[in-house]
Amino acid sequence: MSVFMDLNLSFCADKSRLRSLIETAAHLGFSTVAVNYTFEPTAKKKQEIPAPMPITDLMDQLPVVQGRSRPIRVLNRLTVVMSDSSHFRPTAPEYRRFDLLAVQPTSEKLFHVACMTLDIDIICITVTEKLPFFFKRAPINGAVERGVMFEVSYAAAIRDATMRRYTIANATSLMETCKGKNVILSSAAEKPLELRGPYDITNLGLLFGLSDGDSKEAVSSTCRSAVLHAETRWTASGIIRTTKTCSVTPIQQEAPPEESDAPAAKKAKLEDE
Amino acid sequence: MVRVKSRYLLCEINVPDRSRLFLLDDRAVAAAVKAAVARMHGDYGAALCSIRFSVKYLNAHTGIVFLRFPKKCYRLLWSALPFITCIETRGQKIECFLNCLHVGGTIRTCQKFLVKYNTQQLHRMLPKCKSEEERSQVREAILKCCLTRGNKQEFGEESDSEDDEEQ
């Protein structure tokens, strides 16, 4: 059995609230969570893409997951709300700071683009309003083939009765088309009280039209493949990964000032002399 | 011999403020569950929920409840539980959510699971202890349940000692 993941905890500037969110998630038995930063570009003025807060700033010691001996793993995730195709810039260096990249398309055309071409991991399904379009087989099949996941979040359904109707309606129409494949269920919780346990979410999948097996995968193994998909995005065929080490070298230089700069062969020479 | 089959859901009531758990009683929990089911599944759900549903056990110290549902429709009724956001009792609203820990066919299997779960909680509590006195109490409790695991009578004692820590 794979471990449980919740790939959407809403970011809030209040550190203590975010901390209690992560602690509650660990208590409920989620091994991996992702803190979600929503970015909604508007046409009028240029906006900054939010920078993720390093998790070491937030808490010194991550809480231990329920039923396991490991601390919880916290990822960063960016959700771009797309109302125009220019809103997603595939080469933006800001995107590289996030572990996961998600897109929330607001029209059918953008949904098609997101499914077929954009280099992303997750497509969010709108749950707070009635879907302005129908899901079509072709883009969804394309997304399934490329390994892009569809995300349904349930916190809005807990908050309000009208939202609950929209969530269930949109989720059911998605499941009709994608037959339960590549769907993840996540919370989008802003408060710790909006989180639910993994078994409850699995059962909640029943309302969204998922089968038993699919809904269990929706909180565990499908999430895992989304994370792995995100990891391969920054690598060459998932084998080689390049990272800048400039942040590491100053620390090394502090300890032995001269030696670390010289390569191994030169170092040996210096010692000989 | 055929018996009437039920499913027992072992749920944990999570509240931000633990001291408010003492306000709970089983009637309040039952009313909250019934209201949630009626809200989610309408008259049909309410009808199913009136057949053999009951709150079998409530531990106000640790916030553990046993809910009994008919086996035939327990999944439908369970799907309404995540939508409980508060429990009303004695004129007060307690904000909380239910987290299902285990589903069992008999109370016995649920109890076995609960003993295991409570022991696990003691282990989790140990690194969080602040004073030396607390720590020694938790250690003692862990030791006690290691020695007498599976003994029904000791189980009561063990869960009591856990409660001392949480206050």
Plain-language structure description:
The complex is a heterodimer of chains A (273) and B (167). Chain A has 273 residues and is α/β, with parallel strands linked by helices. Chain A has two domains: 238 residues, Metal-dependent hydrolases (TIM Barrel), CATH 3.20.20.140; 31 residues, no CATH class. In chain A, 38% of the residues lie in helices and 15% in strands. Chain A has eleven helices and seven strands. The radius of gyration of chain A is 21 Å and the shape is globular. Chain A starts with a strand and ends with a helix. With 167 residues, chain B is α+β, with helices and mostly antiparallel strands. Chain B has two domains: 100 residues, Ribonuclease P, Pop5 subunit (Alpha-Beta Plaits, 2-Layer Sandwich), CATH 3.30.70.3250; 57 residues, no CATH class. Chain B is globular, with a radius of gyration of 17 Å. The interface between A and B is medium-sized, with 24 and 22 residues.
